[in-house]
Batch of 2 targets.
Target 1
Amino acid sequence: MIVSIRFDSQVRRLAGCSHTTVDVDEAATLIQIIERVADQGTESLRTALLDEAQVPRSSLLVFLNDELVAKDQLVALRDGAELTLTTLISGG
Amino acid sequence: MSEVGELPQLDESDRSIYQWQMWADGIGEMGQRKLKASSVLISRIGGVGGTVAYQLAAAGVGKLILAHAGDIKPSDLNRQLLMTHDRIGQSRIESAKVRLLSLNPRLNLEIRNENVNGRNAEELVSKADIVVDCAPLFEERFAMNRAIVRQGKPMVECAMYEFEGSLTTILPGTTACLACLSPDPPAAWRREFPVLGAVAGTVACLAAMEVIKLITGVGETLAGSMLTMDLGSMTFIRRKLHRNLNCGVCGNLANCSPEA
């Protein structure tokens, strides 16, 4: 199953691109997908996505088709689903 | 906010200044009286917060409480429109006072030459009906978030980075609070960030509209959703948010109005 990944805000800058795709098993969890994205990306992207224990950071926001989902939430993804990975920004 | 019977009356000066916005559907005389009766705390009056303050002063909000420490630097002037070149080296908050009162001399203005922190957030939030969070540091934003959750006050949460902006309205017990979204600061965030004044100003005007809608009841706010915008590509996306019922800040609040 191909999942489209969109990067926003600082995650996009660290990824060096705005989109990518990952090919994952249909039963893949969100955490497994984030880990796969980290494996495919730059070291700075990996640092933005995963903490020292190599688990997704608490500050990482995940949207499934523009709706916020918890990273440990069980969601049924379809081929072509779009996940957005981003973090809050704070510029004022 | 004030009950209808307690709302201040408009005088002739009010009517002459706000006539055109009172023509707006849903504002009218009652909306203008609500604006006049309202108080808004703005945390930092830089590129975003300064323009929020300017718009709210122009719209006739009765009282603004502004918190921002420090003196004007040359690097402020590309975006901080309440600051002026001739005041470089002088207090930001005093410059803001002069600019705002020259626009609206009847504005009730309280200025604080300090940034929001864990020690003063409760007191500052207690002075206002609505809070606008425009701070550049997550520690300040989290302090404000804790205070508005404890006091049950709405907060317009607005931010920018480079060509991007984000905006949501937090209603404690009803919508996600800041800590629901991010219990910790993002690892990559730095105090200094790329910023264009036009991006900060765009976010600020949208935030001011959120405040006006909260006060007057007109229109639909961003409560329960986040507007993100990329002004580089002119992409605007509205995304749905959810509370984290295990949130360490607001998780103990009963759901006031369950989200669909």
Target 2
Amino acid sequence: MSKRNLVVNDFCITFSTVNGSGSATANTTLMRALFKMGIPVSSKNIFPSNIQGLPTWYTLRLSKDGYMGRVEQDDIIVAMNPATLHKEVQYLAPGGVFLMPDDFNFVNTRDDLIIYRMPVKKLIKDAEVPPSLRDYISNMVYVGVLCFLLGIDLDLIHQALDFQFKGRQKPIDQNFHMVEAAYLWSKQNLEKKDPYLAEEMDGTTDCIMTDGNTAGALGSIFGGVQFTGWYPITPATSLAESLIEYLPKYRVDPETGKDTYAIVQSEDELAAIGMAIGAGWGGLRSMTSTSGPGLSLMSEYIGLAYYAEVPVVIWDVQRVGPSTGMPTRTAQGDLTQANFISHGDKNMIILIPGSIQECFEFGWRAFDIAERLQTPVIVLSDLDFGMNMWTSKKFEYPDQPMDRGKILWEDDMEEFLAKHGGEWGRYRDVDGDGIPWRTLPGNRHPKSGYFARGTSHNEDTGYTEDPEKWETIFKRIANKFETGKQYLPKAIADESQKATLGIIASGSADPAVQEARDLLAKQGIKTDYLRIRSLPFDTEVEDFLKKHEQLVVLDINRDGQLNQLLTMTYPVYSEKTTSLAHLDGLPLNAKWVETHILSLLEVK
Amino acid sequence: MATPVPNPAIQNINKVGLSKADYKGLPSTLCQGCGHNGIAAQIVAACYEMNLVPEKVVKFSGIGCSSKSPTYFLGRSFSFNGLHGRMPSLALGGMFADHTLKAIGVSGDGDTASIGLGQFKHMVRRNLPMVYIVENNGVYGLTKGQFSATAERGLQLKKQGTNPYLPVDIAMEALISNATFIARSFAGDPRQVKELLKAAIAHNGIAVLDIISPCVTFHNHENSFHSYSFGKEHEEPLHEISYVPPKEDITVEDFEEGTTREVVMHDGSQVVLKKLEKEYDPRDRWQALHMLEEAHSHDWLVTGLIYVDPEVPSLFDIYNKPATPLNRTPNSKLRPSHEALDEINRLMF
């Protein structure tokens, strides 16, 4: 094969396996080795809601240009699941590579493919792997074969296994031995006919490899999380589990040996949010993590926290709804639910991270916002961020000290009373910014106690049905959210192309939009881009809407929920705006975005 | 803040220098004669006599007539009136903020025995240190007279007709969920309510008090389990109960030897139970279960300390918590160092 036909660091490998067969170790090992070579690499795990037995796909994308989005076609398929063998072939790009065990009964219907057959059973037998481990270790055969085909140094595989098994020699040896044997077999028996190569580059400098749930948990830890009430739900579970993993490492007081946090696994989401709100009211940096069905259950308590003005952070790692929906697939379908959550009039603060690094950043920032504004903050992540492994920029240390908001302890109360004629009321707007001063249980000052409630109250927390009092409090709360906008992450506009067409998106739609913009630019189509990072919208959003002649709003949901909220907030620009919404449970891909924007422009 | 110094020269001042008025709340807006008002009065008396500092008490409640009542006692204490049946989770979170506080939760039968049954049982199984009072009247008052889940089968109400379902027994539910303190009382027996409240306050764990508290407006029929007349006629106390604070000697003159049983609480205080007709040991779960079954079959309103185990670790004994309240942790201890983040970044591979 001539050098110029080679495809280097710019292709996609999909591993088709059976759920529960232990392929995750093999796949992440390869990903780690590629990352160590300096190649930007991302993965998409498309898996079923099942423990064992259903088909699962894991895609690794190598992209020298750093694109992290999903791609529609595979260049290499490693087919380890006989049940889906003939279907897989359809997803291969022209001239693609098909790798499979040599005992699979495969009828090739395409003449453009390069097929390699691996003697998996023979190699396992020769390696004398204990029967109980055979299924797991057999995945290492394809790791070895791919190392030979793509040119991956076995040392890197060893490093990756060492990391995976935390230095435990036995599993490292067992797995590595299999990789070596398969590599050796390939070297002696395979003739490389395909063009795909992995070569060392410097695309991962200052980068890490992690997932959004880990990032969110670590960000929360650096935000000083003190209490977590949670209930297991896919795809949010690993966020709380990361807290359980990392909190003991980083948040035990070295002076006392005591924990500066508490985690409680609750009986359900109704209790998880109740606990979190109780703790937030008590003055702890408090959070819960859930997904759509859990958020639905939490809605009544979130309304109470809004009205009683209790800080709490709620992570919603979105999956496909409504109802149970597709628990193991990704979506941005909870946006309007989060925005309008719970009955009655409300303002809800929503943070939408658009990268793994932002999952970390919003992890700590959410507490500052919640405590400053004394209100719930919902962080909308999704399964694509939460559970997939990404190459990401390193986590950055918080660039500002913790903002605990307006809290009065005993001495503060004395000072406050001296300044304010001896009076304090929990819901009095003494500063004119809509944010009252709060006290925390345990405060021994005799004037500090108050009665928090979801029933209508006056500024001193007394029950009242007085229409004027109701309106006073309610308008003051609305004002609080006007003040609050300054604390929210601004939408980021890229107007470097000075285009008349503006794209608006949020969250995990970002990688596909970034890539699609490059694809469009290559065809001479200029685009500007606004990535929304929080709600309620602020002036920079309106500026962008105003400035562009044509607008496209991208959503990973059926109804174009981001577009719905924009239209509702800024109806005057709706005529020049088109919603591009797509939901099939898979992460958005650049090709889809490109195609749909192109057809939109043709119609025009 | 200076600690209040008791002045013995002034009458009616307790050991923390407070008068009963310091424990009062706002005037009640419940119906006249409502059992809940009597309970609120006994909470005031018990807290006063136990020398609790109101700022060291935190109140929680759910939704319903009962849950309004925290307004009517301990006006200086922090309080959170939560959602229907979901006060236990709120209290758990709140207590994690400052575990040195005494928590008093007030719920009702509509709150605890219906939507709240799940949270009730999980609170019990976690042994959250809290006095959990169920003001039990068998009826929904605020919505004007519907059956609650503790209403007995066959009960007749004006609008509802006849209740076709069997009742939930809150004490029984608590017992089978491994509650560490269970008592039942009757709002018309203020002395017993107060002594049980004091014992419950001394308990290091969940203390469930199921207090039959008649609804004078919607449910006070002669023959109903949840009425004053029924309670007065059918109350069968298990024992006469007295609470003795720590470091106070019990003398033989106070209690006739051989007729009493003492339970030593976690803090060294004692609950003295004077035997009545029956021999009853509240440390025996099996006996407690048997007694509740027997009471059901005879239609007795058995009151007193049904079960107690003072030695079970509370929720907060299980956690590696600092002695100081978590909500007093300085920010410097909450954010890990730059070095910690560098280490994490190195590990993310």
